[in-house]
Amino acid sequence: MMKKLVSTFALATALTSGAFAMPVDEVVAKANHAAYYQGADGKAKVSMTITDTQGRTRTREFTILRRDGEPDDAAQKFYVYFRGPADVAKTVFMVWKKPEADDDRWMYLPALDLVKRIAASDERTSFVGSHFFYEDVSGRSPEEDNHELVEETDNYYVLKNTPKDKGAVEFDHYIAYIHKATFLPVQIKYFDEQGENYRTYDALKVDMVNGIPTVTAARMSDSRIGGSTEMRYSDVSYDQGIDEDIFSERYLRNPPRRELR
Predict the structure, then answer these.
(1) Confidence class of residue 121 from pLDDT cuts 50, 70 and 90?
(2) CA–CA distance, 27 with 157 (Å, rounded to integer)
(3) Of 55-59, 136-140, 155-159, which range is least confident?
(4) CATH of 2-10+20-260, one of 3.30.1360.70, 1.10.357.10, 3.30.40.10, 2.50.20.10
(5) CA-wise closest residue to 180 among 25, 22, 32
(6) Torsion of CA 236, 226, 85, 45, to 10 degrees
(7) How many CB atoms lie within 10 A of CB 39?
(8) How far, in Å, CA of 31 to CA of 18, rounded?
(9) What is the pLDDT of residues 213-238, one digit of tens each?
(10) What does residue 93 show for φ and ψ, rounded to 5 degrees?
(11) Residues 141, 156: contact at Cβ < 8 Å?
């Protein structure tokens, strides 16, 4: 998978093994931007396939809307509207991402006509029954971890990331492989206190969208619960002028039909 991505971006002719390492904080900042902050806003349709240990599958279909704060402001807002199947249709997940405080998260459950606040302690729990966590969808703040550049290859920066508050997470540390040409994290491995890799994220496909390298397929696997979840993105777009009013409790019960088309 990594070799395929490398060939896609023709790194062999662009990089050399003797390149001087970029400061780790700069690598982290660029990787965070590449993964979550491309364009002033963004939109994508997502098809999620959840596979259990016996090979049985379930699906989720949803649309993600994102809007960033002002330039140089790491605040973001996310709106996730579920189209299907029937048991999750019209469910809405919304996030107000705050760089220096706990994020605000809401889930609207249409069957109960209930808006539920998601506590900060629930960030690393399953996102609608998948192997992805709530935090994976909106992103983990770089400020929550200490970062170390443990290896630099021709094609990747390899970072070891250790949580500052180990009591708030289930992992001891994670290793991220950052693609040098795009700064996209193409693989993230989570390790427990015994040093066992129990959870792995892989970027399966990267496409150019309006000149922006964009992950359009990704997988999360977890050996503790078994199985994996794949997400495939279509109709991806940036800088759509998405109205900030959409990211409010009013629109949890009344989805913005035009923006979700």
Answers:
(1) confident
(2) 8
(3) 136-140
(4) 2.50.20.10
(5) 22
(6) 0
(7) 17
(8) 21
(9) 999 999 999 999 999 999 999 999 99
(10) -115, 125
(11) no
